[in-house]
Amino acid sequence: MLRANVMNGHCRGTLEVYTRMRRLGVLADEFSFPLAVRACAKMGHRYSCALVHSHALRTGYQDNLHVANELLAAYGRLGQMALAHQLFDKMLVRNHISWNTMVSGFAFNNNSSGALKIFKRMELDGWEPDLVTWTSLLSSHSRCGHHQETLRLYNVMRSKGIKATAESLAVVVSVCNDSNKGSELHGYVIRAGLENYSFAKNSLLCMYGRHGFLQAAECLFSEIKTKSLESWNGLISSYTQVGLCDEAFSTFLHLKKIRRKYHT
């Protein structure tokens, strides 16, 4: 019941089932606690999350790896990284998910220094950062506007023989202020077979638009099979970047027409 509600986005229903379960004297376990915690986080309920955490603490399930990892993710989503850090330090057992959740939590909360500290601590403790770790680290620096540092970290990642993913490339392309570097990244996207990932193409589209390469931006836009709002915004921004206001407005009107047709 808990899982069915969470999977279908019925977070309030999840908590209602959890509350009813407790009233009936059925205690949660390593399977039900993470579901209740996830529902709290998705709803943005700090108090409810703290309450479920206290239940896990009293029943001894806070030390369960799956429960602890879900709590780390919840506190990150709720903007309570200090609590996440306290819990992380107390964990008896950690896995890659634990470390990655902390790095991504700092990234989500625009704290690049916190993400980097956990990243370095991970390496010192003998753990090997994986693609998820690197992507979260890149994202944290990108979110904070540290463009040069994002590019430097990307180069370090590649020097270690780690292949970039569509997600990490999208992050790096978004901060690229050098058209030559942007073209180099575009080439990597093609060689790595990542062209079908829309978010990678959207980032490239916006990058070309920023540098005034309108033809390249239009070409990428036409190649995107399922165009998201970001795709349309990227094309409109590309037109305005080179002063083609009529084309930008015409594209905007076309977008409105398509969305109106879709919603009717």
Automatic annotation (TrEMBL):
Gene3D superfamilies: Tetratricopeptide repeat domain
GO molecular function, one term: RNA binding
Database matches in InterPro entries: PPR_At4g14850-like_plant, PPR_rpt, TPR-like_helical_dom_sf
A UniProt-annotated Pfam family: PPR
Annotated PROSITE patterns: PPR (PS51375)
UniProt keyword Repeat present: yes
Keywords per UniProt: Repeat
Sequence ranges of the PPR repeats: 95-129, 130-164
UniProt record, GO biological process: RNA modification
Keyword field contains NADP: no
Alphabetical list of NCBIfam families matching this protein: PPR
PANTHER family noted in UniProt: PENTATRICOPEPTIDE REPEAT-CONTAINING PROTEIN
Protein name (record): Pentatricopeptide repeat-containing protein
Organism annotation: Lactuca virosa
